[in-house]
Structures are given as structure tokens and as C-alpha cells.
Amino acid sequence: MAKKKEESPKEISVEERLKALYQLQIVSSEIDRIRTMRGELPMEVEELADDLEGKHKRKERYEDQIDQNKHNIEKAKESIRTAEGMVEKYKQHLNDVRNDKEYDAISKELENLELDILKYEKAIREYQEDNQYIKEDIGALTADIKEVQEVYQVKKKELDAIIADTKAEEEKLRINAKSLEELIDPQLLAAFKRTRKSTHNGVAVAPIQRDACSGCFNLIPPQREIDVRSHKKIIACEYCGRVLIDEELATEVADNFK
Q1: Model confidence over 159-177: pLDDT tens digits?
Q2: Residue 140 sits in the same domain as residue 197
């Protein structure tokens, strides 16, 4: 037996499209409500996590610099030991010199070696001082990391609790929204999403209440209100661009949604 051909969004009546749109609005508003419950927490948690990552990387760079300085200190010490060995060697040669020229040459080498030793000793002191400053920076940074970590853990725990409480509800709403979107033609859906982004409260479908658009509160001309109630075509508010729906149909959709 042949399967019944499914209706495409274009084959659905205007009334059904309005119902789907308003249902999607209700579902979207519920998702917005859940996000509002989370407030600035997701952003705060993300910023704290980024801050912690940056501080840990800075601490690693400090520690790497300490290791490099220690390596340089060992190299300088080795150079000193080599130079001192050469000094002893040249001093012994002084006893065997045969003329003033050899004596002056060896004396010059000794002088250069002594200067090299002083240079290496100075470098060692500088590396040691640098490491001392870096260790102080690491101490301050470690305390800062601990403080930020504590705040992060509190905020993350709070956010996780909210997500845990609302995850199932939000997932159900998202599935519902996806199903409703399939009933709406792409052009109308795109317009719906654009309007949601451009409005402060995310409302893209507004019931007419007391002869006015409930989105922007501007009065709707009587004939236009009649046209909206006739469900013959999708009509947008000429002031704010929200899709208009008569209050009776909106109430019916809202009651069925509960």
C-alpha cells in the first residue's frame, strides 16, 4: 500500500502555519527563560577558565625561565672551572719563561682569564637574582591562581547545578522547536529568526491585544485586525515587523501547549 504523501510547509494552511509559528515562539521563549536563569554565569565561568589558563601558562613560562637560568648558571660555573684550570696552567708556565716577551704573553692570558672569571661570576649573580625575583612573582601568581580557582569552582558548581536542573527540559524544548521548524517554510522561518534577534525580548510573533500589537503596543487598524483573524495570509505589524496573530488563536495554541 502506497504511503500517504507528507505535507510540505507550503501545503499547510495559513492557520496551521500561524499555530506552528506561535508554538515555536512559545518554545523559543521558554528556552530564553532557561538561559536567563543562567544569567551571566556561562560567560563568567568561561572568562574565569580563560583567566586560569592564562595564569597557568604564565607560571609555566616563569618556571621554564628559572630552569634556563639554572642551566646558564651551571654553564658559567663550568666555564669558571675551565678558566681556573687554565690559570693554574699558565702560572706554572711563568716559572719556565725564558724572556720578557713570553712573560708578558702569559701575563696577558692570565689577565684575560681573570676577567673572564669575573664576567662569569657576575653572570651567575645576575641569574641568581633573576631567579629570586621570578620566584617572588611565582609566589604572587600562585596565590592569585588559588583565589581565581576558588571563585571558578563556586561559579562552575552553581552553573552545573542550573544546567542539571534544566538540561532535560531544554533538550525537550529544542527537539520540539526542531519539529516545529520543519512545518514552517524556510523564508518565513528565516524572517522569524531575524526578528527574534532584532527584538529586545526575542518575541517575533505577537498576539493582538486590545486592538494593539502586544510587541510594540501600536494600534492595529480595524481592517488589518480583521485580515489577521481571517487567517488567509501571514500579516506582520507595520511598526515592528512582528508576525501578528489574533488573541483567540494565540490563546488556543498556548492552552494546548501547557
Answers
A1: 999 888 888 898 999 999 9
A2: no
Does residue 4 sit within a domain? no
Q: What's the pLDDT tens digit per position in 169-226? A: 989 999 999 999 998 999 999 999 999 999 989 999 999 999 999 999 999 999 999 9
Q: Residues with Cβ < 8 Å from 121, sequence gap 6 or more?
A: 76, 80
167, part of any domain:
yes
The contacts of residue 15 (CB under 8 Å, 6+ apart) are 231, 249
Cell of 50: 580563560
Q: Is residue 10 part of a domain?
A: no
Question: What is the percent of the chain with per-residue pLDDT over 90, rounded to a whole number?
Answer: 78
Q: Using a cut of 0.85, tell me whether the model's pTM lies above it.
A: no
Is residue 220 within 8 A of residue 213, CB to CB? The reply is yes
- Domain boundary (135, 168, 183) is at 183
Predicted confidence at residue 258, as pLDDT, reads 67
Give Cα separations from 64 to 68, 70, 76, 138, 161 (angstroms): 6, 10, 18, 12, 38
* Structural domains of the chain, count: 2
Q: So what's the pLDDT on residue 95?
A: 80
Type of residue at 59: K
Domain that holds residue 224: 185-257
Check whether residue 73 and residue 112 sit in a common domain: yes
Please state, in angstroms and rounded to a whole number, the distance separating the CA atoms of residues 93 and 64. Answer: 44
Residue 124 lies in a domain: yes
